[in-house]
Amino acid sequence: MSTSGDAPSIFSRIVAREIPATIIAETDTVIAFEDIAPKAPVHVLVVPKTEKYRNVVELAAGDPALLAEVVALASHIADERAGGEFRLVFNTGEAAGQTVFHVHAHVLAGGLGEGSLAAG
Question: Which of 43, 102, 104, 106 is an active site residue?
Fold first, then answer.
């Protein structure tokens, strides 16, 4: 569901190829693409193709196997792009920085020190 009624989320529009994105991996149920405003040298979004779940809590409760697929694809991307070392971030709620209410994971890597992503 999107916050603007029945309109598809931006991620659903990327899945449908209505909006261009640099897609780096895709399965039948999950897609990964580069973030357009990266916060780290490696910043990839991993997104379930369904917009049924607004956040990771809903996804974990509703389809733990799909959550496992998101994590597995994130790990694969980190193996390829960052030697397997990465942060996996799910923002849940507007106050936590979530701007698209279609569950997605941020794969962040590349020279990240403790506190390197603190709000500034």
Answer: 104
